[in-house]
Every structure is written in C-alpha cells, then in structure tokens.
Amino acid sequence: MIVGGDGRITLVNAKAEEWFGYRREELLDQPLELLVPERLRAQHRQHREGYNAAPKGRGMGAGLDLVARRKDGSEFPVEISLSPMATPDGTLITAIISDISERRRLERAREEAQARYRDLVDNLPIGVYRSSLSEPRRFLEVNPALVAMFEAESAEQLLAVPPARLYRDELVRAEVVRQLKSTGVVAACELTMVTLRGREFDASLSGAAKADAAGDQYVDGVIEDISARKRSEREVAWLHDVLRQRAAALEAANRELEAFSYSVSHDLRTPLRAVDGFSRILLDEYAAALGDRGRDHLSRVRAAAQHMAALIDDLLKLARVSRADIKSESVDLSALAAEVVVELRRREPERVVNCRIQPGMRARGDARLLRVALDNLLGNAWKFTGRRADAVVEFGADPGPDGPIYHVRDNGAGFDMAYADKLFGAFQRLHTASEFPGTGVGLATVQRVIHKHGGRIWAQARVGAGATFYFTVDAMEAT
Amino acid sequence: MSERTVLLVEDNPDDAALTLHALETNRIMNPVVVARDGVEALDYLFGTGAHVGRDVGDLPAVMLLDLKLPRIDGLEVLRRLRADPRTRLLPVVILTSSNEDEDRLKGYSLGANSYVRKPVDFDEFVRAAGQLGLYWLLLNVPPPAVY
C-alpha cells in the first residue's frame, strides 16, 4: 500500500483488498484512517502528521501493537513497516502491512500454556525448584510450596539464600551435588533439611541435572516434607519394638511360670509327704505314748499337710489352665458332665444325689479345659448339697442373646450374694473348712477356663436355698 | 514272695525311708537296694563305680525310679537303660511327686512301664506301695534273661 503525504491511499495490492475487505476503488484516494479503528483515528492522524514532518524508515512492528479495521468493522493485529520515498509529487510512503493474527494466537496459546504450567507448579503441595549446578549454586526458580516449606518470607528471600544453607549435614549436601554431577540424577534422597528459621525437618529430595543452550548446568527438582511420614514410621517402629519386647517378656514369664510350676510340682510336695508320713508312723507305732491329745495334734498336722498338698495341686491346675493353648473343637458338654458325675458317685457311693443333665448340649471349645470347669462346678454342687437328703444337681442350657447360657444349679448351702464379688478370686472361700472343705482355687480356675473361651460366668444364690452358676462359651472369639 | 531285688532310685532320704516303711507295712520282704542318684543307679545296673564286679546278669525285678535326681536325672537314667541291651527290658516304674504332662509324656516315650504319683497322704502311699509290690513282684512275669 502506498500512501501520499496527505494521508490518502494511492495504491493497494490484492492482498490488502482481501485483508481489509474493500475493493480497490473503494480504497483509492481515501484517507488512510479508513483502515484504523474509529477510536484510534485521531491519534493515528497525529502520528502520521508527526511522521510526515520527519519521515524515516521504520522496521516491521517496531514495538507497537497496531490494530487495523476491516470494512465490516472487525479488527485484526498488524505489523507495519514504513519507508518514505521523495517524488516530484511530494513524499509517498510505502507501507508494508502484515496480518499477524495467527502469530498472536500462537503467542497467546503459548502464554496460556505457560500460565497453566506455572499454576500447576505454584499449586503443587511439594516444593519445586530450579537451581544452578555450577558454583556458586543458587536457586533460579522456587514455587510457593518450597517457600513455605523453608519458612521464607517470600520467593525472593529464598532465591537469595545459598542452597547449601538448607542442608543440615554438609557431607550429605556434598554427596547430593556429587551424584548430580556424575549421574545427573538424585532420586528421593531422604535427608534432614533446615528452614530459614533454623527448624530441622525430614525431606525427600529429587533432582535432574540439565544444561541450557549456553551450556550452563542447572537442576530441576522437587523437595517433599516427609516429617509426618517419618514420624509415623518411627511410631510404627517404636510400637513394633514395644510389642516385640512385650511378647518376649510374656514368653519369658510363661517359661518362668512353667519352670516354677515344674519345680513346685516336684519339690513342694515332697516335704509334705514326710510330714504326713512320719506323723502317720508316729500315730501307728507310738499311739500309746502320745495319748489322746498327742494323737489329736498329730492328726491336725496330717490334715494340714494334706490340705496344703491339695492347695498345691489346685494351684498347679490353675497355672496349667492359664498357660494352656486353647483348642477349638466340638465338645459334647452333656457327655462330659455325665463323666464327671460318674466320677463323683464313684468317690462317694454313699451319697444320694439326683443329677439331671440336659441331653445334647454341645459347644465349641477345648474339651480338656471345659472338663476342668465342669469338674469344679459339678464338684461344688455335689459338695455343697452334702447335708441334704434330697440333693439335686442340674446342668442345663437356655437360649441367650449371644448363644446358649449354661447353668449348674444345686439346692445346697448356697451363699450370701453380698460376697458374690469374692467368688472367683483365688483362695477366696465363703464357707469354713469345717462346714465344707476346699482350697478356694476351684472357681478361680473355672473363671480362667471360661474367660479363655471368651465367655462370661456369674452366679445367683441365697443362703440355704442353693446356688446357680451361669456361663457362656464363645470359642469363636476365644483368646 | 520271691527274693528278687527291688531297686529304689530316690535321692530324698525321707522319701526313701517312707517307701521302705510302706513296703515293710505291706510285708514285702524282698531286698531293696537304694540308689541315691542316677549315677549310683547306673553303677549298680552296669557293675561300674562302687558296684564293680557285681553280676550284671542279676537284674532287679523292678526299678522304682524318681525323676528329679542330682547329677543324672531319672529320665536320663531311663534313656541309658533302654539304650543298653542288658537293661533294655528291665521293668521300670516311675515313682515321683510330679504329675506334669511333660514328665508323663517323656517317661512313657522313653519306655517306662508304669507311672505312679507318690501321694502325700501316707495311707494312700502305703496302699500304692502294696499294690506295686503285689503287681510287680508277684503278678507280673518278668522278661527272660537276655544276658
């Protein structure tokens, strides 16, 4: 396009026709401002006149964002270079106009892409950096997460800090730099870093070394604050340690208990046998010399020795129940109870006891341990009905909310419910030895068995009106 | 009753005295040799130590063996007896305070013929001794001499 000194168009080419949407004859001799958006026309005229006063060549797009107007009023970005030409008719100015819409669009797309990446990096919860690899090392770029991680006031503050200051251990830093220089990569290196405020934290650092067009090496990488993870790792390790120590202590305690039980079983009974045995021999061979009182004393010595032997045996049973591994098998409780009753009748054939066992009671559990429980419960019922001519002992079950509730009921001496809390404690007795003999370990053993089966045991009783012991067995949740 | 020997392996002098008394009470007049630990028991059976020169073919009718013994314990005595062809078939009754499963299992596994728990009640002890004497010295037929 060629424009005269008066600003009127003197020549247009086909491309100009096409871009501006005018036919050639519509443009010729028209003021150039026709092709300028209306809002810029006055300004343009001034520019043009200023230019005409001192015309000189001007290169393409010399720093100006120029906008052109099409015939239909739409606008498009252009670049214009001007070259003045003196002619006899005055100065003519050749304007070479380029439509730069496409270039602008690409630029905008690139800027948008850059903005998106910038956003992404800025919003990442982990620290992202670029730093120079050659000395003196410094940060070139840092994202907000990294600024926050190192407790810097601003990105500028962090950028001004030599990265070396952020490592707690100089040797670790040197190793990171060495790796970057030799292999070009550091992957998830775990180390302790220090914030600008001097706080230490566990970090994971990764980086990859690259070289820019000028050959300067730099590192792109990420730093993650892994304090929380490290803390939970340490907690898990600590808990694991505690657990292992407890397991070992428990195992040691169990071994000790076993050794103790073994020793008790062998050694504690022997002196009692001597006490009882020699008392008996005295009673036999020196009965006359002893007299009634002497014989009575010796009988007490013997009874005490035998009672102590029974205590030892019961305690050993309790200990055995405690350390026994529990099995889970189908147990016929009715049959087990019948065996116990047979044994009780064999021991005291003179007793008349009406024993009623509900048939078909089965439970999952450890037959041996449940036998120990029934031995004690039925044995107690048998014992405490000893003063009744019409003794009745019942073993049955009723449905409960979590499976059957079993009961062992008797019409014997019963007990005062005020003392029910003492019932299951070892060595606790609610009757005097002269009323009913016993060691006070039986119900403690029963409770241990039931608890090992994940069950519960409780009692109902009245003095002189018998006692009922209830229990549940939940071998599925046995511990 | 025959004159065959009973070998009583018992370290506790009270228990040894009570056992002898219980046997006596039951009128069991067989000679009783008391060994006070495992070493003495093995010396007696194999003719070694204090028993050098003893005719090892003359085996006791029964050995009453305590488990907890000084030096060599009862289970080890039993293991060595069973490993030796001369004493492999010797009737052995474990006579002990313990009724630990572990002892019973090991005792029978090593070839004990019987396991009897010494009762504390001396009346029961006397009864047990009587039954043991009756059974092992009279009723039981011993293995043929193998040596």
Task: Offer a concise description of the structure.
Chain A is 44% helix and 24% strand.
**Helix amount of chain B:** 40-55%
Strand order of the largest sheet of chain A: 2-1-5-4-3
Strand content of chain A: 15-25%
Q: How do the SSEs of chain A run, as a string of H and E? A: EEHHHEEEHEEHHHEEEHHEHEEHEEHEE
Helical content band of chain A: 40-55%
N-to-C CA distance of chain B:
24 Å
Global Rg of chain A: 52 Å
Instruction: Give the averaged pLDDT of chain B, no decimals.
Output: 91
The fraction of residues assigned to DSSP E strands of chain B is 5-15%
- Biggest sheet details of chain B: 5 strands, parallel
Whole-number average pLDDT of chain A?
88
Main β sheet profile of chain A? 5 strands, antiparallel
Beta strands of chain B, count:
5
* Parts with pLDDT < 50 across at least 5 consecutive residues of chain B: none
Number of helices of chain B: 5
User: Cα-atom Rg of chain B, whole angstroms?
Assistant: 14 Å
